[in-house]
Amino acid sequence: MMKNMMFINSWYESEHESAAMWSLYGNQGSNIAIISDAKRLHDALFNDDVEQSVFCGRVKYLDYEKEVIKLHSAAASHNAFNTFLRKRKSFEHEHEVRLMTLFSGEGATVDQNNKPNGLDIKVSLPTLVSSILVSPSASPWFVDAVKDVVAKYGLSPGLVSKSSFNDGPLY
Fold first, then answer.
1. Pick from 29, 5, 8: which is nearest to 115 by CA?
2. How many Å apart are CA 5 and CA 68, to the nearest integer?
3. SS (H, E, C) the chain
4. Beta bridge partners of 58
5. 1: number of CA atoms within 13 Å, CB side?
6. What does the pLDDT look like over 2-13, one tens digit per residue?
């Protein structure tokens, strides 16, 4: 089945941080958000050094009680990836953009049952990352640890800052 062969990487698309996203995915105080944009993402994935098949698309949120996912129609553009760009309306707050690729049998990491659980995709980190936000509930030691890891991978620790999401308003 194709679903077992698809690898998906999800991104949140917005100009602003989201209380819902930090609460759902970053409430433990040990989470980060990598800040990028569409151009950086494209340039980091597709360059002269790397040839890879990655499809990018925005998720469309549907009311599963009323809307039908059309698999074989002109509207579906005969693109198998469109099937993976649909979610329930109740997830609309995620503003999700997905990067997807089909598993070709090479480059995947596997779990204890020898099933694929990850796929290495080559990217240029300096091109991809414009900044890194650390969870608003993170301890100072965690912010320092993120800066150390960022430096280890050749990026400037100056890209890292703690989210000011919990700070009060300006008066």
1. 5
2. 23
3. CHHHHEEEEEEECCCCCCHHHHHHHCCCCCCEEEECCHHHHHHHHCECCECCCCEEEECEEECCCCCCCCCCCCCCCCCHHHHHHEEEHHHHHHCEEEEEEECCCCCEEECCCCCEEEECCCCCHHHHCCEEEECCCCCHHHHHHHHHHHHHCCCCHHHEEECCCCCCCCC
4. 97
5. 2
6. 445 778 899 999
Specify the residue for token string 């990598």: 34
> What's the pLDDT score for residue 3?
45
Q: How many CB atoms lie within 10 A of CB 104?
A: 11
Under 8 Å between Cβ of 26 and 33 = yes
Q: Which residues of the chain have pLDDT under 50?
A: 1-3
Q: How far apart are the first and last CA of the chain?
A: 56
- Can you tell me which residue has the tokens 């996912």? 69
Contact present, 2 and 84 (Cβ < 8 Å): no
pLDDT of residue 170: 82
**Longest CA pairwise span in the chain (Å):** 57
Long-range CB contacts for residues 107-110, cutoff 8 Å, separation at least 24? 108/7
